Amino acid sequence: MITNRGRIDVGARNAGAPPDLRSARLDRRWFLFGSAAGLGALALSGCASTDDMLRAEAAKDYGPVPDEKFPIPAVDVSKIDPKYFRKIVDYDSLEAPGTIIIDPSNYYLYRIEGEGKATRYGANVTRPEFKWSGDAYVGRKAEWPVWTPPKEMIQRQPEAGKYARGMPGGLDNPLGARTLYLYQDGKYTLCTIYSTSDPDSIGTGVTSGCTGLLSQDMLDLYPRTPVKTKVIILPA
Question: What's the mean pLDDT in 189-203?
């Protein structure tokens, strides 16, 4: 377990609807102004909630990504609390732009942008028994990585043994489309920031020390996060 100084004892952890129109004819005006105007009318008439508006907007960020090696499907945004959608927020920090801060208590990951701003992503985080805090850094990165279950996981879940030599990258791979591997003092912590295609997991504690973002969010974060990027995990 990692202490408040950020050290890890690997042996102590088990790793790893449009508005009502007066005419049935949809004229060109409707198509020009599109869903934004329609949803605005819904909200004013009391037919759409703020959450409906947020989800309609978020659908643009969380749509399908067909050009990937393994095409990524759209996220069912109805399954996510809108507070977890990607957003630029006010965030005062003395950390350098690019720094990643993980807030497991609130299920957020922040990327510092500077000038009092950060990109905030909804996340899944570690289960209580695997919680840790401290400083780390991105030691390496991978696209559609191979996943190899740690020996401790195989001991707990023998069915994972069939992947002892590695599970090829793909949509069913637990690490997903992109992964950032976290290191301390030159050593891999067994913890990652990884991609998930499971919207139900966002805002929950489900991992063994790792932090998961929706695949579309990882596609946003990954290219802006070079190796050696500082990562701070706040106390849960």
Answer: 96
